[in-house]
Amino acid sequence: MSKENLMEKVVSLCKRRGFVFPGSEIYGGLANTWDYGPYGSALKKNVKDIWWKTFVEDRDDMVGLDAAILMNPKTWEASGHISNFSDPLIDCKECKERFRGDKLLEENGVEKAESLSLKEVSEKLKSEKIACPKCKASNWTDAKTFNLMFKTKQGVVEGDQADIYLRPETAQGIFVNFKNILDSCRVRVPFGIGQIGKAFRNEITPGNFTFRTREFEQMEIEYFVHPNDKKASFDEWKEQSKNFFSKTLGVKDENLRFREHDSEELSHYSAMTFDVEYRFPFGKTDATETWGELQGLADRGDYDLSQHEKFSGKDLKYRDPYTNEVYLPHVIEPSFGLDRTVLTVLIDAYNEEKLEDDSERVVMKFKPSLAPVQVAVFPLLKNKEELVKKAKEVHKMLKPHFRSEWDDNGNVGKRYRRQDEIGTPYCVTIDFDTLDDASVTVRDRDTMKQERVKIEELAEYINKKLTA
Ligand code: ATP
Asked: What pTM value is reported for the model?
């Protein structure tokens, strides 16, 4: 399967099976907005819940937070977003289309274009004779700064409205609450604060399905440590980040890698950054791989806390209860993209298989903990009352324990095809034998093997399989 094909096939399956729909579609859509359908929102929720359980609930050194999207604009002065959060914008003088200069250079084989200055981007576009992807001309304006924050107005009185911003990252909500959490919860450094929520960036070139959008969700952690301990903490988070994708979510190791930012690429706040990247099928040709960032891991030092001290005038220092040392903790920040993680899980799970009778099936091999539906229950025939009654009983019995779905459309073969495409690990069929022997047929998504299981043992059987 070629790379372009794989991406097209995933996008088409997402629409066909209710994972992801184009946003506001009945009005002709709104560019690069996407809505998660019933199975997509279930998948996304499962990723979110597993992240929260892994990094917040299961740990004694983490607490959670849910801060507001709208924040005092001083936050963004302090964080550096008003002066620094921008990308190099270029216009094609012929067709007037706008692009992000560094990304266009990278797509044309220029490495590390993100670290080039505006002047260097303009020069490279000329020297490399980069063509406009839309009209193929090579006639560019000079690159200029374009701030990515969405600006809006707060207040109802015309003329008295204040400019505010939709947050471009969730992190700052954590920093401004650092003192509240120190004062109200019994946390001691080292500890972290985790948060999941929407962020907004007016991206110049959104695209590649849900990979780059203007509204997206982040899952961020700010982990506060003593400055002497940050190297060890950074290494631990590096290990845990990759484990989350490969072990917890089951993403194939060969499609994951770490990439360290070199000094020119580092953000204004960061002393060291690693990205966890996934091998996305966005290549222009089959031979091109597009490694794309899933998660950033940054050593932010004490940049944010000291900036907020400066701009708010509040003392944000921490006093160690044992040594009485007073200091500003340093911060290690694992910052995960939820939508990109869901896209990764969808792409990584997509499989096409040839069957013995030469037909093909598409199967989404989600880890069972992530699957939107864990077990589907079918009556063999939908017009046989006794089968439907028994199947309903089984469905009702399973529902409190598993994400269980009722399916009586078409024949059993068609139901298997559909459940394979939404990635359901187990299908349970109630047939005429069930009425005599109180057993059902359980079919395994991956092996397609079928087993007879007693109804009274069914919940335990499925539970064992799902957690194996
Ligand atoms: P990129 O270089 O791809 O623009 P970034 O380095 O600006 O990403 P961060 O600021 O480190 O991204 O944000 C943390 C995470 O948030 C990213 O790893 C990514 O998963 C997610 N993210 C950032 N921008 C977007 C976007 N426009 N759409 C979807 N997810 C995003």
From this structure: 0.93
